[in-house]
TrEMBL record:
Keywords, in A-Z order: Coiled coil
Region described as Disordered: 14-44
Residues forming coiled coils: 403-430
Name of the molecule in the record: Deubiquitinating enzyme MINDY-3/4 conserved domain-containing protein
GO biological process: protein K48-linked deubiquitination; proteolysis
Alphabetical list of Pfam families matching this protein: MINDY-3_4_CD
Source organism: Spirodela intermedia
Membership in a protein family: Belongs to the MINDY deubiquitinase family. FAM188 subfamily.
Keyword Lipoprotein belongs to the record: no
Biased composition (Basic and acidic residues): 24-42
Domain spans labelled Deubiquitinating enzyme MINDY-3/4 conserved: 119-481
Length: 602
């Protein structure tokens, strides 16, 4: 029962993170000089949350209902695109950081053996100082640039394998809500003067909590922080003051060995999502500091368990942070996406014989993964990662991880005409008694027409049945000439099943962009910011009528003297970049176009 209440509290936290809180009525507070116990403080905050919910319900009843859902907008580039997010109205709306009852957090240090194992798993036995600097100088922070403020910014190479999966989950919370799986409406109505900082820290913390519990088999989450910050646990300092205090405390801190991990690292374990949320929220400045990325990776490893991590891997002798450039391994990315540190991206297990096997993705995932390496035939990404629950993918290149996403879950829907063709073919094959020869008898053909709800004209049926058997290719040609309204495959719109949609690509690594600063002597100051690109994607079906007719004409006239078949319609103008090759691993034959600079995956 307590776990269910925790889930309700987290749901309330999500709703609070996505909506603006109304002005609250003033409530009595304890005297400033009174000492309040943690238990009393937790009870008081919970009463205030419930009171806020009661006020909202009363206001709702007075106004006669919620009416239209309250939209939140966010300003992005590509002509300042804004999204109106739709969701069910909450029972309560409050701006409190603490969710549910607060509990005492037991924080402990690692034993020397675990510290040694952890450091060796991360960096191996001989790690360069430059790699350590890469991984201890990257915080988990949103971009300060208003056009990319929804994204986590990266300043150095290496930890992108941590930031990109977190970014993917952040986008999940921003773009989709569990009760509104397919509803995200684009809008460009938000005026420029109403731009606001979005998202807030709660969205980030909810994403971190989900990932850590995913690593902990949805039963527990470990949170790794630093001993020098434990005196801030009561959140006595304001946000910026705490950030400054954390930065000052980190000035002389370096992590170069397992002994340093044992000295500075402090770990707490939570079996309640609410407790983990509250603890991460209190310690968020630590994760926003330069140690944030490596601390979150350590948290994920400890949530999974060091023994389980090594059991997941095909070769546990290799470090998770690869040399010589300090890139995050595929095992790290997979851990944060699917909860297991497997090295491969195919579905399930691959049996090698002799009792040996390779481990892949164990099941469906919330956010997916695409890679340029598949387009180069180095690997094959399975359907679990290609077709995640949400249309959001971490994108891997040879040296960097970025994020691709769509606003509408319909981007993952199958091509309508391809689905129709597959259904008719299945009905045809069910009547095929030739052992796969591709032809059926007359009685079987009439059964196919009934099963597939195909209404061919009587004269066409007679023509197809004249020989006493029906060949699939001839039947298919008839279907291409038969309108969809009669069960055929002819598309009166002329698109022949072509699918078109928009996707967005976010690259968190900061790059210099022109016109970003005030003019100074000698030129303009470039602005350092991440990049967000909008791409229009057009996906033709696996076949087109022109291709089919071309094939028929070629078969009928094999002679070189025969007239050449008419060419298909000219292709739409398309652009190319390595990202397009990644997109084609998910949507074969896709063409893409965009305005401005090419999207970059490096």
């Amino acid at each position: 029962m307590e776990y269910l209440q925790d889930e309700e509290d987290l749901k309330m936290a999500l709703l609070m993170s996505l909506q603006s809180a109304p002005s609250e009525a003033k409530r009595s507070k304890p005297p400033e000089d009174a000492e309040e116990s943690p238990e009393a403080r937790g009870r008081r905050l919970r009463r205030e949350v419930m009171a806020a919910a009661a006020e909202r319900r009363m206001a709702t009843s007075r106004s006669g209902g919620w009416g239209n859902p309250v939209p939140r907008s966010m300003q992005w580039p590509c002509r300042r695109l804004a999204f109106l997010l739709l969701w069910s109205p909450p029972e309560g709306n409050t701006d409190r950081k603490v969710v549910g009852e607060t509990r005492q957090v037991d924080v402990g240090e690692l034993c020397q053996e675990d510290a040694n194992r952890l450091f060796s798993m991360l960096f191996g036995g001989a790690v360069s100082k430059s790699i350590l600097l890469q991984w201890t100088n990257q915080g988990i922070r949103f971009s300060s640039d208003h056009e990319t403020c929804m994204g986590l910014v990266q300043h150095k190479g290496g930890p992108c394998g941590i930031l990109a999966p977190i970014q993917a989950f952040v986008l999940k919370y921003l773009l989709f809500f569990p009760t509104e799986l397919d509803k995200v409406s684009p809008s460009i109505l938000q005026p420029e003067h109403e731009q606001r900082r979005f998202p807030n820290d709660r969205t980030l913390v909810l994403s971190m909590v989900e990932i850590l519990f995913l690593c902990g088999n949805k039963k527990r989450a470990a949170v790794a922080t630093l001993s020098i910050f434990t005196h801030h646990a009561d959140d006595e300092l304001a946000g910026e003051q705490k950030n400054e205090a954390v930065s000052e405390a980190l000035e002389d801190l370096s992590v170069e060995s397992a002994s340093d991990l044992k000295k500075y690292l402090r770990v707490s374990t939570h079996d309640s999502p609410t407790d983990a949320y509250n603890h991460l929220m209190a310690e968020l400045p630590v994760f926003q500091s330069r140690m944030g990325a490596v601390l979150f990776l350590i948290s994920a490893l400890l949530s999974r368990g060091l023994d389980a991590i090594q059991a997941d891997r095909d070769d546990p002798s290799l470090p998770l942070v690869t040399s010589p450039f300090g890139h995050a391994s595929q095992e790290i990315v997979n851990l944060l996406i699917c909860g297991e540190a497997v090295a491969n991206v195919f579905d399930g297990r691959m049996d090698l014989g002799g009792g040996m096997s390779l481990k892949g993705i164990p099941g469906g995932v919330e956010v997916g993964f695409l890679t340029l390496l598949e387009s180069l035939n180095y690997c094959k990404v399975g359907q679990f990662l290609k077709r995640p629950r949400w249309p959001i993918w971490v994108v891997g290149s040879e040296s960097h991880y970025t994020v691709l996403f769509a606003l509408d879950a319909a981007a993952q829907a199958e091509n309508e005409l391809e689905e129709r063709e597959a259904k008719i073919r299945a009905a045809f094959d069910a009547q095929d008694q030739s052992g796969g020869g591709g032809f059926i008898g007359v009685d079987g053909f009439h059964q196919v027409l009934r099963d597939a709800a195909v209404a061919l004209p009587p004269e066409k049926v007679s023509s197809l049945c004249a020989a006493g058997f029906i060949v699939w290719n001839e039947f298919w040609q008839a279907l291409l000439d038969l309108d969809q309204s009669n069960g055929g495959l002819k598309d009166s719109s002329g698109k022949m099943g072509k699918k078109q949609f928009d996707v967005f690509h976010f690259n968190g690594i900061a790059k210099s962009v022109p016109n970003g600063g005030a003019p100074v002597a000698g030129g303009e100051v470039p602005l350092q910011r991440p990049r967000l690109s909008k791409l229009h994607v057009s996906v033709p079906p696996k076949w087109t009528q022109e291709e089919f007719m071309t094939d028929i004409a070629t078969t009928a006239a094999p002679s070189s003297d025969a007239a050449a078949p008419p060419p298909p319609h000219p292709a739409e103008p398309a652009q190319h970049a390595p990202l397009v090759d990644c997109i084609r691993t998910r949507w074969p034959r896709a063409t893409c176009s965009w305005d401005g600079d090419s999207p970059s995956i490096v």
